[in-house]
Amino acid sequence: MKIATYNVNGVNGRLPVLLRWLKESAPDIACLQELKAPQEKFPLQAIEDLGYQAIWHGQKSWNGVAILSKVGEPVEVRRALPGDPEDLHSRYIEANINDLRIGCLYLPNGNPAPGPKFDYKLAWFKRLTAHAKKLLAEDIPVILAGDYNVIPTEMDVYKPESWTKDALFFPESREAYAKLVKQGWTDALRKMHPEEKIYTFWDYFRNAWGRNAGLRIDHFLLSNHFDKKLLAADVDRQVRGWEKTSDHAPVWIEIKHAVKK
């Protein structure tokens, strides 16, 4: 089974790119972030025409997450991260699909930092960590995929010294990610590429794509049920080079998992 995550940076404005990628890469399940569309403006028909069922949590102009599946209906479990009923940002959605629990997330950026936005980022991270611990306690196969807006280590950025004042690379952000992983999660992309400089995001500015001046901020965290079932993990880098594309590239994993018909 192939599962992907992709920050589309505007699902309607970049719909041709999304549809082309879905056709070419053909993931069984896809998690999308930064829809930047209200609930009623999600392009469901175009998605269904490619054989996918979908659930989504939209928000006008900002945020927005979705889970697409062509291996069974995504049965929604929740569409908000627990812990703060006043947080109305559409940043998390969770579903059961084919005996898997899939959590799709768009973690706050946190800039400018320090400040209220960074405080919100750390608070959101704390809520995610608490929820992730409960998911592990359920002892079910869980995948947490999405744009974490965290550069975990110096290996995950083209020029670490250029990012020391950015919330994505602040020690507190990296420590929060490390604490989450240490609960018992596997960082799938790093496990399959332990020594490789591998990126998932290239800024639109300063010819970052052309210089391969990238970051790794889109991650797959897997519960221990996949310790012997993770077959591959990689980045569809070529998508970042397409016309009118997102500044992120899709990330995908392949797992050994029987598809129920």
From TrEMBL:
Please name the catalytic residues of this protein. 106, 147 (proton donor/acceptor), 248 (proton acceptor)
Where the record annotates domain Endonuclease/exonuclease/phosphatase, the positions are 4-248
Tell me its family: Belongs to the DNA repair enzymes AP/ExoA family.
* Gene3D superfamilies (alphabetical): Endonuclease/exonuclease/phosphatase
| Residues with site note (Transition state stabilizer) | 149
Site (Important for catalytic activity): give the residues.
Answer: 218
Superkingdom as given in the UniProt entry: Bacteria
Keywords annotated in UniProt? Hydrolase, Magnesium, Manganese, Metal-binding
What molecular function does GO assign, one term?
Answer: DNA binding
Cofactor annotation: Mg(2+); Mn(2+)
Residues involved in Mg(2+) binding:
7, 34, 147, 149, 247-248
Entry's cofactor comment: Probably binds two magnesium or manganese ions per subunit.
Annotated protein name in UniProt: Exodeoxyribonuclease-3
Q: Which GO terms describe its biological process?
A: DNA repair
* PROSITE patterns to which the protein is assigned, alphabetical: AP_NUCLEASE_F1_3 (PS00728), AP_NUCLEASE_F1_4 (PS51435)
Q: What's a Pfam family in this record?
A: Exo_endo_phos
Residues annotated as site: Interaction with DNA substrate? 248
